[in-house]
Write a structure and sequence with these properties.
Two copies of one chain form a homodimer.
Chain A (H helix, E strand, L loop, with lengths): L2 H24 L6 H8 L6 H4 L3 H26 L4 H18 L1 H9 L10 H10 L1 H10 L5 H23 L8 H23 L1
Helix pairs in contact in A: 1-2, 1-4, 1-6, 4-5, 4-6, 4-7, 5-6, 5-8, 5-9, 5-10, 8-9, 9-10
């Protein structure tokens, strides 16, 4: 790698880290490329030599967040050797805890909308799909007779339901719930859902 | 009422309807008080003689949306005379359909954040709590031995889970699901959750 390329890579990494810190502190709406340029010591326009646009920058930060979430979920799975059902409960609670601890970065992934007519790039879509394996694997053990498509749908339903509980539980609104109570509610509902799915399978 | 007060009330109603149309067309981010003032034929600053601030305006629109949602859920409950469990399924599907048909207005209610340090006013909180009765009543029939607090928590969990499925299902993203498939997934998961909750109760 030439010195110039090396410098560019270093600056690009600085930019993504600075954006991550800014979103964590101010939320997605507080992300200002002008402030980022000043922070990493480059001209305003030079930011767009490092990333194509703000969409890419936000997705690069999201990619880092997803990798940390992946680690947190892997740790939750490794922590015990429980039944597949209890593994799903552990994953749901780890998801809730991760969201609470990384509130603005986690929110940013869901609040961010691509500019009109632009699709999420493949590398980012892959980051997202990767995470589903944590839900998919225990489900495949619980429902060995289900095919891949059906398991995919069940995984998505379960994830969406838990995501909804975490979103509304962590909002500072009417339904705001203290974290220990939220964990308990999530565990209760995931257990009930799995029980019910197993019973309906028979 | 004096003529001046009548005129003010008329203008206020016009403002709220214009804001509703604007959010429905452009989303919450597209709501511009300058455009609203032009549309209802008053000076920019005069908008703030009609509502205290943009927060109030958005909540007034939200109040109208919640009342229409209430009607949609009531109609779903009246439509059949099924079991309490199937009533909960009907309500969940009606919620999904309402969100799909009123996408931007529905999103606006959840995207809107009050300005820092301001609480949601009581009239708006009441609008929101009212809706929980649709879930609470069938749950109380299904779980007669549960107290009001516990039923409230179950109602919140169920609502949050369905809300999550609707939010992620209607997003134009990775997990975007065609509406008929989404309805089926929601019905399946609500039935499983209730089955599971009943089984755990015994």
């Amino acid at each position: 790698m030439t010195k110039a390329l090396e410098r560019r890579e270093k600056l690009r990494a600085d930019l993504i880290l600075a954006a991550e810190r800014m979103i964590a502190q101010r939320g997605l709406a507080g992300l200002k490329t002008r402030d980022l340029a000043r922070e990493i010591g480059c001209a305003n326009g030079a930011v767009y030599n490092l990333v194509a646009d703000v969409d890419e920058l936000v997705l690069r930060v999201g990619s880092r967040t997803l990798h940390r979430l992946d680690e947190a979920l892997s740790a939750a799975v490794r922590a015990g050797n429980p039944s597949p059902q209890e593994t799903l409960v552990c994953i749901a609670i780890a998801y809730c805890d991760f969201a609470a601890e990384n509130l603005e970065l986690w929110r940013a992934m869901f609040e961010h909308r691509m500019e009109a007519d632009k699709d999420v790039p493949d590398w980012s879509a892959k980051d997202q799909m990767q995470l589903f394996r944590h839900i998919y694997v225990p489900l495949a053990t619980l429902f060995p007779e289900r095919g891949a498509d059906e398991l995919g749908i069940t995984a998505r339903s379960l994830f969406s339901a838990v995501h909804g509980m975490v979103v509304l539980g962590l909002e500072q609104r009417l339904v705001a719930v203290p974290l220990p109570a939220l964990r308990k509610e999530i565990a209760g509902l995931v257990r009930a859902m799995i029980d019910g799915l197993i019973a309906r399978e028979r």
